[in-house]
Amino acid sequence: NTEICFFFFGHVTQPSVHILGNKAHSVTIVAKATCLVMTLKCSIQPNNSPKLMDLLDDTVPGIGTYEDFNTIDWVREKSKDRDRHREIANKSKQSTVALLFSISDAFSGWLLMLLIGLMSGALAGGIDIAAHWMTDLKEGVCLNGFWFNHEHCCWASNETTFQERDKCPQWKSWAELMVGVSEGPGLYVVNYFMYVCWALLFAFLAVILVRAFAPYACGSGIPEIKTILSGFIIRGYLGKWTLIIKTITLVLAVSSGLSLGKEGPLVHVACCCANILCHFFTKYRRNEAKKREVLSAASAVGVSVAFGAPIGGVLFSLEEVSYYFPLKTLWRSFFAALVAAFTLRSINPFGNSRLVLFYVEFHTPWHLLELIPFVLLGIFGGLWGAFFIRANIAWCRLRKNTSLGHYPVLEVVVVTLLTALLAFPIEYTKMSSSELISELFNDCGLLDSSKLCDYSGNSGGTSGSVNATAANGLGARLAGPGLYTAMWQLALALVLKMVFTVVTFGMKVPSGLFIPSMAVGAIAGRLLGVCMEQLAIRHHERDIFRGWCSPGADCITPGLYAMVGAAACLGGVTRMTVSLVVIMFELTGGLEYIVPLMAAAMTSKWVADALGRESIYEAHIRLNGYPFLEAKEEFRHKTLATDVMRPRRGDPPVSVLTESGMTVEEVERLIADTTYSGFPVVISQQSPRLVGFVLRRDLVISLENARRHQEGVVSMSPILFTECDPPMSPSAPPAVKLRSILDLSPFTVTVHTAMEIVVDIFRKLGLRQCLVIQNGRLLGIITKKDILKHMAQMANRDPDSILFN
C-alpha cells in the first residue's frame, strides 16, 4: 500500500473577539488567522482495509443535547435553527409536499400559542373555581349541593337581603350542622375549631404531595423560570408531574388561608403547559433556544390569566422574566395572552363576567394635591419592599443553613396553625386575600353593608366644623362607629399580613407573592384614603380642600388609595414599573388614574433601589446559587480576562485534547478524571494552538456510538479531529473521526480583554464558555460560573455560593 499526501498551508478567517484597547466600548469581530491543512490524498487500499467513520454522517441520538444543570449554547442553537430554516426553504422550491411542509412549519408556532392559551386558561379557571369553593368550605357547606361556594349557594335564595346578603337558609355553618346552634359562644367556638382543622388539613395535604411527587412544585417558580429562560437546564422543573402537583397543591395552599397568592405560581403552571406542548412540535422539541421563546410567551399567559391583563402580561414577560425576547415572540405572546384571557372569560370562574375577583371601576376624579399622599404610598411601598426582601432572605437562609430546613412539613403545619389561630378573630384576615383586596378596592355605594362603608353624620362630634359639615350636606360621609372598628382591625391585619408573608414565602408549598404584597399595600392605602377623606370633609372650608367636596358627591375615593398602595407595595417587592402600571390599569379600566399609579410605582422603585438593588426574585436566584447573569447589574471593576480565567497560578494546566495522537483509552480516561463540560482541542501538547472546542456530552455519546456501531474500534484506536486522513497501516485499529462534533469557531478573547467587555459578551450572546488565547496559543478558559464567582468576589460575597455548573 502506498499513500501520498500533499499538505498545503493556507489561511481561513474564523470569528474571534478582539478588543481594541482596554477602554473600548464596542466588540469588534475580526478575522483570526489559522492554519488549515488541505489534503490531496492518493491511496491504494485493499477491499478489506478499514475505513474511517464520520459519526455525524447520520445523526447520532443525543448529540447536541445538554445534561441537567448545564447552560445551553445560544449561538449554536440559533445557528441550528437558521440551518433548518435554510434547508426547509430550499426544499420548498422542489416539490408541493415540501412547500406544504414549509407552510405547516411556519404555522406551527401560532398553533402552539393557541394550545398554550387554551390549556392555561382552562387550568386557571379550574384553579379559581376550586380555590373559591375550598376557601368557603372552611366556614360551612351548601345544602343544595356541596359543590356550591357560599356566594353561589345564596344566589337563588329568595330570603337574602342586602343587609345580610351572606346569610341564607341553604348555607349552613359547621356549628349549625354539627351541634345545631345558630348563635352564642358555642357557634363561635365550633366554627373556630373547624376553620383551623380545615386549614391544617389543606396545608398538610399540599406539603405532603409536593414532597412525595414533585419537589419542584413548591414556591413561586418565577426565580427558576428567569434562570431557565437565561439558558439554564433544570430537568423536571417544567414536567408533567410538576404541572399536576402544582395545580392541585396550589388550590390547597390558597384555600388553607396562608398569606400567599396563586398569581406567581400560575406563571409556572403556564410554562409547564408550554414545555409539555413543545414536545409535540419537532421545531421546538429539538432546539432549546426556540423552546425558550415559547416559555417567554407562556410567562405572559400566566400573568394574563392571573390578573385578566393580557397586555400587562406581555409587558411583564418583557420587563421582568425574559432573557431573549425578539419581536416575533412579542406578537406570539400577545396572541397567546389573548387566547388565555378569552378562555378564562368563557369559563367565568367568579360568575361576574370578570377575569379577577377584585375588578373595580372608579368614576370620581382625583385632585392634583392628592399626588402628595400617592407619593407617600410609593415611599411606603419602597420601604416595605426593601424590608420584605431582607427579612425573607434572612429567614430563607436560616431555613437553609439550620435544622429548620430538615422539617418542611412541620414548618408548614406550624405556620398554618399560627396563621389560622390569629386570622379567624379578625374579619379582614379571616377572608381570603383576593376577597380582602376586593373589599379594599371597593368604592362604597348605597347598597354596601361593609363596615368600611359605615358613614354617619351623627357620629362626628359637636364642634362647629362638624355641624357646618352636616349643614352643607356632607355629613353623610363622616365616619361612623363601624368604620372606626374597621380601621383598627385593618391596622392589626396590616401587621399580621406583613409578618406572615415574610415567613410564608419560600415554604415547601406553592406560594405566590403578588396577592400578599398587594394586600399589604391595599390595607395601607385604604387607611390613608379614609384619613384623607375625613380630613377633607371636616376641614372642607380650608383653602387647601376648597372645591374638593360638593353636596351629594364623594370628596375622595379611599378605594383609589388602596389600589395605588397595592401597586406601590408590589412594585417595591418586584421592582416592576411599566408592566405593573398597565396591569393595574387593566384591573380598573380607567385611564384617569394612570398618573397616580405611575407616581407611586416610580417612587416605590426609587426608594427600594436606594436600599437594595435586587428584586425578590433576583435575591432568591442568588440565594439558590443559580447561574444567572442579571442584565440590570453593571460591572464597574477594572479587571482583565487573565484575572478570571482558569487555570490560575499554581493550578495544573488546562485539560485539552489534541487533534491527533490521542487514543480512545486516553480520551475516556480524561473524561473519567474530570467533570468539565467541554474540552479545547489544540494542535499538540507541544504546540497548543487552538483548533476548536468539543462538548463533553457530545464526546461521550460519540465514543459510545463508535464502540457499538463501528467495527474494530478498541481502546487503542486513534481519535482524529483533523480534516485529512492520516496514513495508517493495515494492522492498525480503525480511527474514530470526531471532527463533525468539533466547534471550529469558539469565541475567544485575549488575556488583556477587560472583564466588563467579557461580561457584556456573555450576557448578550448567552455564552457557556470563552477561551483565552495569546497569539493563537491557548492559555485558559472562562466559564459563566467563573464570571459569577468573580462578580460575587468583587461584591464581597461568598464566591462558593454559586452551586451549579
From TrEMBL:
Major place of residence: membrane
Q: How is this protein positioned relative to the membrane?
A: Multi-pass membrane protein
Name the domain of life this protein comes from.
Eukaryota
Q: Where in the cell is it found?
A: Endosome membrane; Membrane
Q: In what residue span(s) does the CBS domain sit?
A: 645-711, 741-799
Q: Which UniProt keywords apply?
A: CBS domain, Chloride, Endosome, Ion transport, Membrane, Transmembrane, Transmembrane helix, Transport
What SMART domains does UniProt report for this protein, alphabetically?
CBS (SM00116)
Pfam families under this entry? CBS, Voltage_CLC
The record lists the membrane-crossing segments as 96-118, 192-217, 238-260, 266-282, 294-318, 368-389, 409-428, 486-507, 513-532
Q: Which GO terms describe its cellular component?
A: early endosome; endosome membrane; Golgi apparatus; plasma membrane; synaptic vesicle
Under the heading PROSITE patterns, the entry gives: CBS
- Give the Gene Ontology MF terms in alphabetical order: voltage-gated chloride channel activity
Q: Which CDD domains match?
A: CBS_pair_voltage-gated_CLC_euk_bac, ClC_3_like
Similarity comment: Belongs to the chloride channel (TC 2.A.49) family.
PANTHER family per the UniProt record, alphabetical: CHLORIDE CHANNEL PROTEIN, H(+)_CL(-) EXCHANGE TRANSPORTER 5
Which named protein is this? Chloride channel protein
Taxonomy of the source species: Eukaryota, Metazoa, Chordata, Craniata, Vertebrata
